[in-house]
Amino acid sequence: MTIEVRRKVYEKVSARLKASGTPFDDDPRFLSAVEEWINGAIDIGELRKRYFDIQRTRTRLSSDHGGD
After folding, report:
1. Whole-model pTM?
2. How far, in Å, CA of 67 to CA of 33, rounded?
3. Which residues of the chain have pLDDT under 70?
């Protein structure tokens, strides 16, 4: 998949989620990983792994701080 195709895929998914009112992750760490995927530096499996790692970190931090 080319960089252009990956960028279009991301933009289409992002636009669809935003249009439906679905919250979309704008965490800079996630967006950085998305750019790495778009540029071909990582594959989709690595992007997914990083996203889940970010989510896991948030959950742990939320639990450590009583959900604040």
Report:
1. 0.79
2. 26
3. 66-68
